[in-house]
Amino acid sequence: MFAAVIGFCLPARSKVSGWLSTFAIFISAALSVAVFSKVWNQHPVHQQQLWFTIGETKVYAGLLLNNLSVLMLVLVSVIALPVHIYSAAYMKNDERYGRYFTYLSFFCFSMLALVVIDNLVLFYVFWELVGFSSYLLIGFWRTKQKAVIANKKAFIMNRIGDIGLLSAIIIIFTSTRSFDIDHLFGANAFVKTAAGQVTGIWQYIAFAGLFLAVAAKSAQFPLHTWLPDAMEGPTSISALIHAATMVAAGVFLLGRFYPIFNQHELTILAIAGCFTAFMAATIALTKNDLKRVLAYSTISQLGYMVMAMGIGAYSSSLFHLAAHAFFKCLLFLAAGVIIHEVQHIKDEYHLTIDPQNILYMGGLRKKMPLTFIACIVGGLALVGLPLTSGYLSKDGILIQSFEWSEGKNWIYKLIPIGALVTSWLTAFYVARLIAKVFFGEFKMIQFNPSIKLHIGDGGWQYRVPLMFLSVCCLFPLFSFNPVLYERAWIFSGFPVITGLDRVNIYHTIIPVLVNLVAVLVLYWAWSIYIKLKALPLPESGFLFRLSYNEWYIDKLYQKVVVLPVMALSKTARWFDLNIIDGFIHLLANIGVAGSKIAGWSDRYIIDGILHMVASLVVAIGSFARRFQNGRVQYYLFSMLAVILVIFILKTVF
Q: I need a surface site. Which of 137, 141, 528, 536 has the fewest CB within 10 A?
C-alpha cells in the first residue's frame, strides 16, 4: 500500500516518500518483533482460506508462522529499517528519490510476504516479485550502461532459477496433490511426510529444480556471477538486498523444503556450497573494487550456509544467515559512506578516478573514525573472531562439518578442510581491505598534492544505522555465552540433525585452530600492507590470474553460452530475413504478378468481349433503326429482301 501511495500520489523528488516508507518499515519491524515474541518456540500459527479447487483437490492459501517464518520476518524488517534511514540521506539528491522508495517498499513487501505465505503457488509468485523488484533496484541508475547490463544479467540468471523452482513445484504437486507448505514440510519437519511421495527419477528432477533456484537467488556456483555485477546499483540496495535479504531467500528455500532432500542430494549441496565458499574467497583476495570485494565475500558466506544445510547443520546455517545479515549490511553501509565521501573529493578536484577503488584510498581512519570502528567490528564478525556473532555461527558450521565427515571416505574430509581454509582466506582479504582503506597515506594526493580531506562520517542518518548494526554484530544479541554456539537462542529454536557431543575433540581443536591461524593471517596481512615488511601475494602467475580473472567463469560463459547464443541469434535473423522473409516476399510478388495478369485480362479480354458485344448490339440496333423510318416502300423492300434471302438459302441448302 505504501509503495503505491509513494509511487502514484507523491511528487518524484518529495522527501515525504522517504519518511513515509521508513515509517512503514518501522511499523513492520515493531509488529514483527511482537509476532516473534508470541510464536518463537511456541505453537505455530497457521491460518488459511479456501482459494480454488482443481477437480476434487481443494487449494488453500494463508499465513504460516513458525520459528523459521518469524525469524526471517524479524530479520528482514529489522535490517530494512536502518537501510531506510540511511537511504533517506544517501539518495537525497537523486532526481528519482520517490521512485527509489517505491521500489524499496515494493521489495520489502514481496520479501515479507515470501517468508510467511503457506502456499507453494503464492510462494512462487512472491519469489518472482522479489526478483523483479531486485531487477528494478539494481538498474535504478538507468543512465549508467553498466547498471543496465547488470540488472539484465541478474534478471536472466534468476529466471533460470525460477524455471527450476516452478518445475519442482509442479512435480511436488503432481506427486502429492498439495500446495500446502505446512502439510508438505511442516509439523514434524524432519520426518518424511507427504514430500516423501516424490519418488524415483522425479525426486532428482525436483531436486535439480530446487538447486537451480537456490543457486540463482543465493548466488551459488555456477549461477553466482550476477551478484558482483549487481553492485552497480545504489550501495544501500547492496546492503539490503545483496547482503541480507534477497540472497538469503535461497537458504530460506532450503529451510522450507528441507525434508524433501535425501542424503545424496544433501551431499551435493554440501559440495556445491563448499566449492562456492572457497572459490569466492580466493577471488576476493585480488579485487580492488570495495563493493566487489564485499560481493564476493557475500557469495562465500552464502556458500557456508548452503554447505551447512548439506551437512545437516540446519540450525547453524540459519544462525549464520541471521548473523551474516547484520555484519554484512554494516560493511556495505560503511562502504557507502566511504564511497560517498571519496566521490565528493573526486568531484571537488575534478579527478578521473573510480571512487570505489581501494587503491585510491588509504588513511581514512582519522577522518572517519566511526566508519573505521564499524568496519573493524563488521570485519571481525566476518572473520569469526571471538566476542562477535560470526564467531558463534561459523564455529558451529565448522565443528559440525568435521563431525559430519567422521567415519566417511577420505574425500569427504575435503569439505570441512575447504571450509577451514576459506575462513583463513576471509581473514586475509578483510585485513587487506581495511588496511588499504583506512591505513597508510591517502593515495589521491599523488594526483593533486593540494587535496584537503574535508570528509567525515556524515550526519546522524549515516551514524545511527552504523552504530545500531555494530552492536548487533556482537555476541550478546544471540547468546550470553560468547564461546558456546549451542547456547544461542537461534540454535535452540530449530531441530538438531547432527549429533552433538561436547566431549568430541573437534569442539576444542577447531575453535582454537581457526582463531589462532586467523590471527596469524591478520598479522601477516598487517605486515604486508601496513608495515610493508612481509612479502606480499605474488601479482603474477597462474593462481593470481585465476583469482584476478574470477576463475575465468564469466569468460567461459561468454565463449560457451553468450557467443554461441549470439551466433545462433544472428543465424536465425539471417534465416528469417533471407529465407522466411524471402519466401514470403516471393509469394507476395507472385500474388502481385497474378493480380496484374488478372487485371490485364479483366481489362483487355473480359471487358474487350463485353465492349465488342455491346458495340455489335449497338451496330445492329443502329442498322435496324434505319428501317424504322415510316416509309411504306422501305418496309416492302425489306420484306422482299428477306423473302429473297430465304429463297436463296433454301435453294442452296
A: 536
Residues 6+ apart with CB under 8 A from 390: 320, 323, 324, 327, 380, 381, 382, 383, 384, 473
Give phi and psi for 247, each to the nearest 5: -70, -20
All cell numbers assigned to 202: 522425479
CA 263 – CA 466 distance, rounded (Å) = 41
DSSP secondary structure code for residue 560 in this structure: I
* The three cell numbers locating residue 288: 580492488
Cα–Cα distance for residue pair 478/388, rounded to 1 Å: 10
Tens digit of each residue's pLDDT (9 = 90 or more) over 602-634: 888 888 888 888 888 888 777 767 666 666 666
CA–CA distances in Å: residue 602 to residues 234, 484, 588, 613: 71, 99, 20, 15
Q: In angstroms, rounded to a whole number, what is the distance separating the alpha carbons of residues 437 and 291?
A: 12
Using an 8 Å Cβ cutoff, are 329 and 243 in contact? yes
Q: What is the pLDDT of residues 286-311, one digit of tens each?
A: 999 999 999 999 999 999 999 999 99
Q: Which three-class secondary structure state does DSSP give residue 64?
A: strand
Q: Is 80 exceeded by the pLDDT of residue 650?
A: no
Assign 52 to helix, strand or coil: strand
* Pairwise CA distance, residues 480 & 384, whole Å: 17
Residue reference for cell 554456539: 485
Average pLDDT of 124-145? 90
Domain range annotation of the chain = 262-548, 563-652
Alpha helix segments (H runs only) across 384-505 = 389-405, 414-438, 460-472
A 10 A CB-CB count for 209 gives 22
pLDDT tens per residue, range 187-206? 554 434 444 467 788 889 99
Taking the C-alpha atoms of residue 3 and residue 107, their distance in angstroms, rounded to an integer, is 9
pLDDT band at 483 (very low <50, low <70, confident <90, very high): confident
Q: What is the mean pLDDT of residues 505-520?
A: 84
Q: Would you say 388 and 474 are in contact if contact means Cβ atoms under 8 Å apart?
A: yes
